[in-house]
Write a structure and sequence with these properties.
Helix content: 10-25%
Strand content: 25-35%
Shape: globular
Protein name: Hypoxanthine phosphoribosyltransferase
Largest sheet: 6 strands, mixed
Order of helices and strands: EHEHEEEHEEEE
Pathway: Purine metabolism; IMP biosynthesis via salvage pathway; IMP from hypoxanthine: step 1/1
Keywords: Cytoplasm, Glycosyltransferase, Magnesium, Metal-binding, Nucleotide-binding, Purine salvage, Transferase
Bound molecules: guanosine-5'-monophosphate, magnesium ion
Radius of gyration: 16 Å
Distance between the termini: 9 Å
Main location: cytoplasm
Cofactor: Mg(2+)
Number of strands: 9
């Protein structure tokens, strides 16, 4: 490997924060019929930890979308795997690994709104606010991080390292 991985957030820090987020979400959705939608593949570890800590009878589903393409900042996304459960009239929480430019989530949000979700909120493990090209705010944010390329806890570098139980910065040698 021509790079090393420097720890940014330890496993303990991440796990502690996920428990806090889960309790916040649990409080906000008490008595509601919540559908949690994870965006593949980056959200898998975060989502799995998060929903275990919620004392709510949630429904879960997944979506996979391709990176946006096109020359304008609006671009387009392709849905590679859609949800099985309809979002119509449901309280939906989208779970994402990281918000960077905000483009992916702005598209997904619009799509699910157009499909008639009753409410729509976003939960992200990481947020790089300095990189935004469109306005996008997470409703539940684990950690704000600096403009560095990170891996682990579901996030990949060329499809590797998603299984790291901590979040690290990729440092070129
Ligand atoms: P956005 O559409 O907000 O620019 O980007 C979202 C996607 O880009 C994330 O879901 C993630 O897959 C990828 N991404 C953005 N920043 C990073 C990063 O630092 N590390 C990794 N592994 N992926 C990132
Ligand atoms: Mg992602
Ligand atoms: Mg990726």
């Amino acid at each position: 490997m021509d790079y090393t991985i420097k720890t940014l957030l330890t496993r303990e820090e991440v796990e502690k924060r996920i428990k806090e987020l889960a309790k916040e979400i649990e409080k906000d959705y008490c008595g509601k019929d919540l559908l949690v939608i994870g965006l593949l593949k980056g959200s898998i570890m975060f989502m799995s930890d998060l929903i275990k800590e919620m004392d709510l009878p949630v429904m879960i589903d997944f979506m996979s979308v391709s990176s946006y393409s096109g020359t304008t900042s609006t671009g387009v996304i392709n849905v590679l795997k859609d949800t099985d459960i309809s979002v119509k009239d449901k309280d939906v929480l989208i779970v994402e690994d990281i918000i960077d430019t905000g483009l992916t989530l702005s598209h997904v949000k619009k799509l699910l709104e157009d499909r008639g979700a009753k409410s729509l909120k976003i939960c992200t493990l990481l947020d790089k606010p300095s990189r935004r090209t469109v306005e996008m705010k997470g409703d539940y944010v684990g950690f704000e991080i600096p403009d560095e390329f990170v891996v682990g806890y579901g996030l990949d570098y060329d499809q590797h390292h998603r299984n790291l139980p901590y979040v690290g910065i990729v440092v070129k040698k």
